Amino acid sequence: MVWILGLNAHHADASACLLRDGQLVAAVQEERLVRVKHAAGLPVRALASCLEAGGIDLAAIDHVAVNRDSRANRAAKLRYLVAQRPSLSKIAERLRSRARVGALESQLRAAFPGQRLTARFHRVQHHLAHMASAAYCSPFDPSVSLSVDQFGDFESAAWGVCRGNRIEPEGAILFPDSLGTLYSAVTQWLGFRDYGDEYKVMGLAAHGKDDFAEAMNALVTSTDSGQYALDLSYFRHHLQRVYSIGDDGRPVVENLYAGELRSLLGPPRAQGEAIESRHRDIACSLQRRYEQTLFALLRRLYEKYQLPALSLAGGCALNATANGKIRAQTPFEHLFVPPAAGDAGGALGAALVTWFQICPQATRTPLRHASWGPSFSAEEVAIEVQRRQNELQVAGCEVQAGVSESTRCDLAAERLANGQVVAWFQGRMEWGARALGHRSILADPTRLESRQRINESVKRREDFRPFAPAVLQEEVANWFHLEGSSPFMTEVASIRSDQLDRVPAIRHVDGTARVQTVDRVHQPLFHKLIRAFCERSGVPMVLNTSFNRHEPIVCTPSDAIDCFLRSGIDALVIEDHVITRKD
């Protein structure tokens, strides 16, 4: 038996995963356990959770795979140093980052005292790990594999072909040119300053017009070969230190854009300042230019490889709006994006690369669901509910225990059909950026007030941000223009014209929605709940958003009860317990 531990360490979205003979046992993001969004550093608690799921300790690990390899692209790094002459602070930060990753073995020993560590360590190039996290988990074989993000190991994008259990990297775009940095820099200019806020700009873009196309064309240019380059006079990431990790483990990114950006876009929006029409238009033009540049590269890759399937990863693969247009705008017929497409997924990619290096004759196993995190028994939930009994009573809550699966689905469906908001906590926590029916807040998609209420009183977030539908797989073709399945909520699809007015709560202003398909085999309980709601409403979907409130998605029963008590959620279904507000 071969145990492989995969790590994304000392980088945003720190994470760990565990493979047993090449099969995924567990995968967890550190943020869910330490309750710090995008937590960086060493994922000690995520690693411990994976070991617990495998029933082993550190001594059983044969191999540790890390999604960083500082030896990559040495010649390109030297050319960059000579040509760009970055600040000493930037050089020092790169050296510190390399040292932190290089000291992982001693760090793990210190974090788990008394546990013997004899594993062999493997450094896997950042973008190869991203490519593997998609290609090795894809149901399509062979596939073109593409990774696009900000940077890792001096690359911002890399591509090649995956056939069977072998990935052949064949091309890359190097630092400092980056689509991810373009998107993040304009996101900051738009006043969204927190790490990972790009998804807000994707939502805002649908409300604007492409009136800043000329400005975006000045920021990035692309060639007939699909390559792209930034006009570096508008950016500072290549000269100054811009990335750091706060004392609480939260990643911090200083201004990526230079002052010259004012000449194109005017003064930047201050954080919290009112959003004006020009902000919406800039978001729209940014999204359009991103799509144009990505699709040009994808068309070139199709011409080169002539393969119908694409496996896509990297932080930019979380751009569901662009993903939903790939089949229409490029010759690719099939698309796979993993649930943890960003840096967290690099832990899994690195582990899979290592597995197939060790066992070159092994076969791949497609990733069919995202439920790889910790779970909690009915007994553990009962203990937590009992501990919080006084708080629940003060909040005017009633508790039912020992509720069967069928009954809890019926109770939740009935409340949803009556316009209530239900928190749904069942089984193993999801792996990746989305809540997919295990740590979700649900509502009726047919009521516009569902969206308004969740934005205003439950999640307390910007009113332009949309919600997603979780729809029965067997019904998706009747409601959306979507080919195949989208189990990880990674694509936006158009709603069929005859159904547009029936689901206003999940409809974007352009008539699209970010779809999650739910099948009976891999999501039996969530499927059962949606079917119960359909029987009452005639609509085979529910509004699904993450169970959190300005925090990482909830992980434990304690997290769930905390979030429930401080929000306007009407009911919490947590394993076999149903907690409801009397009023």
Sheet with most strands: strand arrangement: 15-24-23-16-17-22-18-21-20-19
DSSP, total strands = 24
Tell me the domain tally.
3
Average pLDDT confidence is: 95
Number of helices: 20
| CATH homologous group name of the largest domain | Carbamoyltransferase, C-terminal domain
Helical residue percent? 25-40%
Architecture per CATH nomenclature, i.e. the level-2 architecture of the largest domain: Alpha-Beta Complex
Query: Might you state the CATH topology name of the largest domain?
Result: DHBP synthase
> Which structural class should the secondary elements be placed in?
alpha+beta
- Which CATH class of the largest domain? Alpha Beta
Parts with pLDDT < 50 across at least 5 consecutive residues: none
Main beta-sheet annotation: 10 strands, mixed
Question: Would you mind describing this structure in some detail?
Answer:
The chain is globular. A hairpin with a 5-residue loop joins strand 9 and strand 10 (228-230). A ten-stranded mixed sheet has the order 15-24-23-16-17-22-18-21-20-19, with helices on both faces. The protein has a five-stranded mixed sheet with strand order 3-2-1-4-5. Helix content is 35%, strand content 21%. It has 20 helices and 24 strands. With 583 residues, it is an alpha+beta fold. It folds into three domains: 3-125 and 344-358, Nucleotidyltransferase, domain 5 (2-Layer Sandwich); 148-340, Nucleotidyltransferase, domain 5 (2-Layer Sandwich); 378-581, DHBP synthase, CATH 3.90.870. Helix 7 (179-189) packs antiparallel against helix 11 and helix 17 (405-417) packs across helix 19.
